Amino acid sequence: MLAFALRRLVQAIGVMLVVSLISFVLFRFVGDPVNQLVGVDTSPEERAALREALGLNDPVLVQFARFIGKAVQFDFGISYQFKQSVAGLIGQRLPATLELSFVSALFALLVGVPMGVYTGLYRDTWLARAFLAVSLIGVSLPTFLIGILLIFVVSVNLGWLPSFGRGETVRVFGSWTTGLVTASGLQSLILPSITLGLFQMTLIMRLVRGEMLEVLRTDYIKFARARGLSRRAINFGHALKNTLVPVITITGLQIGSIIAFAIITETVFQWPGMGLLFLQAVQSVDIPIMAAYLLLIAFLFVLINFLVDLLYVAVDPRIRIGEATR
To answer: Could you tell me the pTM of the whole model?
Structure first.
């Protein structure tokens, strides 16, 4: 187990180094940082002094090593647009994005898995067909259209929930804020979390359904039935457990995707998270924020995949045996 974890950790570090190189190239060679930081009336001498102070005259390898060293310390410089620390800006927006992503992933799991199990066990019922029809809608419609439809129906016509913003937030520790403990915060979270998690929910539902149908046809399930085990024990003690490995794979990747691609949902609902900050950075060519966002999203993907690999070993001992024989 330890050797397996160390191998995955080395691979994760390699991935982060490659992403760091891409981020550094974006940071260093897309536009001129000096032109972004000074005005048109700045003299050439002042520009040269600023270039020297920023270390832009150093060799590329020295600059790359400095970039990695600062990135490890979560130091990405100053935003060109906001004239503030990039780490501070991300620290202000990160809680909103993680909160939205966590609730969306929870919605996708808590709704998708039971729907997938039901449609796999009772595939000929009218409710199972209704679930499949709903899943087709979730897969077919783009995220921004789902968000706009929910705003139009639930917020504009019915007036049940707010259509934008995060609602009232409470500072829990340091600069970390949350809206999960306030009524307006919870109300503001419902529509964007459904919008962001609907595609993942339908994907998980269809995956669980397909795996359940496949497992129920296997010989060991037939043998369990012949032994007289209860239907509940067969379906949930044997069949469902053996569908978890692919479900963990997709769920882990989808959690990373939820965080990375929350940009559209945050834009539609004006949710003050990292996605909206990144979109503003793209519009103003704010390279430090773009580079920091790329590194942070890559780190979250790598971390989630690392945890998923460890869950593989816990759920399926055959993976541990296969790794040990290499």
So the answer is: 0.76
